[in-house]
Design goal:
By secondary structure, the chain is mainly α. The protein is built from 24 helices and no strands. It is globular, with a radius of gyration of 25 Å.
Length: 442
C-alpha cells in the first residue's frame, strides 16, 4: 500500500538536524501545516508556513522542509510555477534532499510549470533514488520502462521498480506487471505479470485487478480462471476508476451484457468523482450525444475540459475540434494549445491532427510549416495511410516545397481504397491546389 503523505513528508526528518529550542514555535507552525495539507486545506497551510519561512532560528534542514511543504501545497492546487520556485528554494538549503529532488524531477518529466526536460528529470530521480527514496526509484523505473528521458531498458527498469516495490509502492508493482507483458517483454511472461498485479491487489491497489481483466480480455492468460468482466467488477467495487470506466463502456455498448445506459452513467460518475479522466470523458460523451441524459453542449464542454486537463489525449483532441468550430483566431489558438498537449503523447493521430492545423490554418499566427513537417513525418512513420500522407503533403506545401508535396499527395491518392470515393475527391482537390503552386487552407 502506498505510504500516506505524512510518511513521505515526515520521512525527511531523519535527514535533518533536531530543531533548536528557540525554533520550536516555528516547528509547531510547520507541523500544523502538515496536518492541514493532509486535510487538503492547502491555502490555510501556507498561512502557517509563512512565519516559519522567515524565522531566522530554523536550521538549513528545517527551512528546506518548510519550503518543500509550501511547494507541495502549491503543486496540489495545480500551481506548478509556484511549486517549482519553492522546490528550488528548498534545494538551496539542503541540496541533496531526495524528496525535493524527486518532486522537482516530476515537474520536469511532465512539463508542469516548466519546459519538459525528461533527461534532466531522470538525473534528478537518480540522485533521489540513490539516496534510498522509493518514489524516485519508481519514477526512474518508469522512465526506463517507457524510454522517457532515458534509453528504454526493461531489465534496468525492473531493478529500480523492485526497489520501490520492496518499500511498498503498489504503483511500482503494477509497472513490474506491465514489464512482463508484450511488447516490453520478449518473450512475454504473463504468469509473472499476473503475480505482480496480484501482489499490488493484496497490498490494497484496486486498479491492479483491472489489469488482470485486460490481460484475460486480450487472451494473454489462457485458460482464464474467470471472465474478464468479473475482475473489472471486483476492481470497480473496490474503487478502481479504471475498472469503473471500463464497465461503463461495456454497459453503454451492451457488449457481453444487457445494455444499461443509466448504469453506465453511474459508473462514469463514480470514476469522475475519483478524478479519473475516463470518467470525465464518458460523461462528456453522454452530454454531447444526449445518451441517457438531456443533451447539453455546455456540460459536455466542461467535462471534456476536465478530462483534457487530467491528461486524456482523447479529450484534448475532442476539445480542440470543438474550439475550431468557433472559426476565429482565438479559437484556433486555443485549439493549437490542446493539440500540442495531445501530440506530446506521441499518439500518431494527435501528431497528424496537430500538424494539419499548423499546415493549413488560414491564420498566419497559427501556421508553422516546418513544425508541421516534423510532426507529420512522425505520424507517417507509424503508418503510411492516405490521411497521414495528405497532412504531410500539406505541410511541405506550406513550406513552399511543392515538388515534395505533389509526390507525397499522389502516393496518398494511390493508397485510397476504391470504395472510398469521397476521400479520393478530397485528396484530388488538395492535389490541384499544390499543382497550382498554392498551399491548402482550411
Amino acid at each position: 500500500m502506498q505510504r500516506p503523505l505524512s510518511a513521505i513528508i515526515l520521512g525527511i526528518i531523519g535527514l535533518l538536524a533536531s530543531p533548536s529550542p528557540a525554533a520550536l514555535e516555528a516547528k509547531a507552525y510547520i507541523d500544523r501545516a502538515v496536518a492541514l495539507i493532509e486535510a487538503d486545506q492547502h491555502t490555510l497551510a501556507r498561512t502557517y508556513l509563512e512565519p516559519a519561512l522567515i524565522d531566522y532560528r530554523l536550521n538549513a534542514g528545517e527551512r528546506s522542509r518548510a519550503y518543500y511543504l509550501r511547494g507541495y501545497s502549491f503543486f496540489s492546487q495545480g500551481l506548478y510555477v509556484s511549486a517549482r520556485k519553492d522546490y528550488y528554494r528548498a534545494l538551496e538549503f539542503l541540496p541533496d534532499n531526495p524528496v525535493v529532488l524527486s518532486s522537482l524531477g516530476h515537474l520536469y518529466f511532465e512539463g508542469l510549470g516548466i519546459a519538459k526536460d525528461q533527461p534532466l528529470a531522470v538525473e534528478l530521480f537518480r540522485k533521489a533514488a540513490d539516496a534510498g527514496y522509493a518514489p524516485a526509484s519508481m519514477r526512474l523505473g518508469f522512465a526506463y520502462l517507457t524510454g522517457s528521458g532515458a534509453e528504454q531498458d526493461t531489465p534496468e527498469a525492473r531493478s529500480w521498480l523492485e526497489q520501490a516495490a520492496a518499500d511498498g509502492s503498489t504503483t511500482a508493482m503494477r509497472q513490474l506487471g506491465l514489464s512482463y507483458r508484450a511488447p516490453l517483454a520478449d518473450p512475454p511472461d504473463p504468469g509473472t505479470a499476473r503475480q505482480w498485479y496480484e501482489r499490488a491487489w493484496e497490498a490494497g491497489d484496486a486498479e491492479a485487478l483491472s489489469h488482470i481483466g485486460f490481460m484475460i480480455e486480450a487472451g494473454e492468460l489462457e485458460p482464464a480462471d474467470e471472465p474478464a468482466r468479473s475482475y473489472f467488477e471486483r476492481a470497480a467495487e473496490a474503487g478502481s476508476g479504471l475498472a469503473q470506466t471500463k464497465l461503463a463502456h461495456l454497459y453503454l455498448s451492451g457488449e457481453d451484457m444487457p445494455q444499461d445506459v443509466e448504469k453506465a452513467r453511474e459508473l462514469f460518475t463514480a470514476a469522475a468523482d475519483q478524478g479519473h479522466a475516463g470518467g470525465y470523458l464518458g460523461l462528456a460523451y453522454l452530454y454531447e450525444s444526449g445518451t441517457g441524459v438531456t443533451a447539453n453542449p455546455q456540460s459536455a464542454l466542461q467535462w471534456y475540459q476536465r478530462a483534457a486537463e487530467a491528461g486524456s489525449w482523447d479529450a484534448q483532441l475532442r476539445l480542440a475540434y470543438l474550439k475550431l468550430q468557433g472559426g476565429d483566431l482565438q479559437s484556433h489558438r486555443e485549439a493549437t494549445r490542446w493539440l500540442a498537449q495531445a501530440a506530446a503523447s506521441g499518439i500518431p493521430k494527435a501528431l497528424n491532427d496537430y500538424a494539419w492545423l499548423l499546415a493549413t490554418s488560414r491564420f498566419d499566427e497559427v501556421r508553422d510549416g516546418s513544425r508541421a513537417v516534423e510532426l507529420a513525418e512522425r505520424a507517417a512513420e507509424s503508418s503510411r495511410t492516405p490521411v497521414y500522407l495528405d497532412t504531410l503533403a500539406a505541410a511541405y506545401a506550406d513550406t513552399g516545397n511543392f515538388e515534395k508535396a505533389l509526390a507525397i499527395q499522389r502516393e496518398a491518392i494511390g493508397l485510397v481504397a476504391a470504395e472510398d470515393p469521397d476521400l479520393t475527391a478530397e485528396l484530388n482537390e488538395h492535389l490541384a491546389a499544390f499543382e497550382a503552386g498554392e498551399p491548402w487552407r482550411e
